[in-house]
Design goal:
The chain contains eleven helices and 13 strands. By secondary structure, the chain is α/β, with parallel strands linked by helices. It has one domain: NADP-dependent oxidoreductase domain (TIM Barrel), CATH 3.20.20.
Length: about 325
């Protein structure tokens, strides 16, 4: 299923986020592994390598990584904050974080957003967040209320741009209309679940809304939680027994086999990893500014970094489109 949508304003493999000086490189570094499968030393090494290679966007949330026993959320932001202080690289990165899904501070009420933002700023050691997302919709709060809260944060200089994550097409379209009607700062970005194994939920009304409103999109689970690296075919590989293995293996299917076979062919032609090709496909989809992927080691990241400068041909995109199409 493919809709007639045009590409975002992407030039030279980077994209400009309204209100943010630095441009977004073609891969956003997912930080949900920091404080989970990556300890502080590994997280620092990954952050060093990502920025040395020209990566700019780092994607975290106030809730990461609350699911780890002993954690309560905020661990990922705190690690990034200590890395920013140590590395002195604040001016080389775009920090994106989120509010609304922390088990200890859920929802998008005015009180929760303002208190949560202060917590994120403190942990990150920043005066302003570059891109602040509503992590998920909150229908218990009037849309006018949370949009006005985000607007106030931008006007106060605490946030440079705002985005939505995990909104339905209908609610996102409503939010864009309400912002316009009320003269509020609008969402400029969308973060959605989208990859070669998960296309229909995005390639429909949601993509149309993003297109209509020129939203820059940052798809998450770019590697289908590791499945698209192909590592689960090799049960002797060292890192196929981690905490993400079961969720990734759920993609094992005839469609999964077809996608991995197409990735094999193209990866061989480019001399790079399957994961890098999967991310390049995503980066070249309509509306996409940069896919998000995480790595828990420099070795994993190095296999993904070629996406920063890789462009697939029309035939390669078509091969992946066909392999990942709707048939099961
Ligand atoms: N807005 C939302 O609701 C939402 C939801 C989910 C994620 N996100 C964001 O999106 C980011 C990306 O998603 P994700 O990290 O969950 O999933 P992902 O990018 O699809 O998968 C990343 C995982 O794949 C494995 N991997 C990466 N490179 C590899 C390599 N070269 N070789 C082998 N395995 C490799 C690693 O897991 P193992 O080594 O453990 O197998 C890594 O943690 C997150 O960090 C977060 O910032 C947002």
């Amino acid at each position: 299923m493919r809709h007639d949508v045009t590409m975002p304003a992407t030039t030279n493999l980077t994209t400009q986020l309204p209100g943010v000086d630095l441009s977004v490189a073609r891969l956003g570094l997912g930080a949900n592994v920091f404080g989970w499968t990556a300890d502080e030393a590994s997280s620092f090494a990954v952050l060093d390598r990502f920025t040395e290679a020209g990566g700019t966007m780092i994607d975290t949330a106030d809730s990461y990584s609350h699911w780890v026993p002993g954690n309560s959320g905020g661990e990922s932001e705190a690690i990034i904050g200590r890395w920013l202080a140590r590395s002195g690289r604040r001016n080389e990165v775009i920090i994106a974080t989120k509010v609304g899904k922390s088990p200890t501070a859920p929802g998008l009420s005015h009180a929760n957003i303002t208190a949560s933002l202060d917590g994120s700023l403190r942990r990150l050691g920043l005066e302003a967040i570059d891109l602040y997302y509503a992590h998920e919709d909150d229908e218990s709060v009037p849309m006018e209320e949370f949009l006005a809260t985000f607007d106030g944060l931008v006007r106060a200089g605490k946030v440079r741009a705002i985005g939505a994550s995990n909104f339905t097409a209908e609610r996102l379209a409503d939010a864009m209309q309400v912002s316009k009607r009320e003269g509020l700062k609008p969402f400029v970005a969308l973060q959605q679940h989208y990859n070669l194994m998960e296309r229909p939920a995005y390639e429909g009304p949601l993509q149309q809304v993003a297109q209509t409103h020129n939203l820059l999109t940052f798809p998450y689970f770019g590697l289908a939680k590791g499945f698209l690296t192909g590592k689960y075919r090799d049960t002797k590989a060292q890192d196929v027994t981690g905490p993400r293995a079961d969720a990734s293996r759920a993609y094992e299917s005839p469609k999964g086999d077809r996608v991995l076979a197409a990735l094999d062919t193209i990866a061989t032609a480019h001399g790079c990893s399957l994961g890098c090709i999967a991310l390049a496909w995503l980066a070249q989809q309509p509306t996409v500014a940069a896919p998000l992927a995480s790595a828990r080691s420099v070795h994993q990241l190095d296999e993904l970094l070629p996406v920063l400068s890789l462009t697939l041909t029309v035939d390669e995109i078509a091969l992946l489109d066909q392999a990942s199409g709707d048939q099961s």
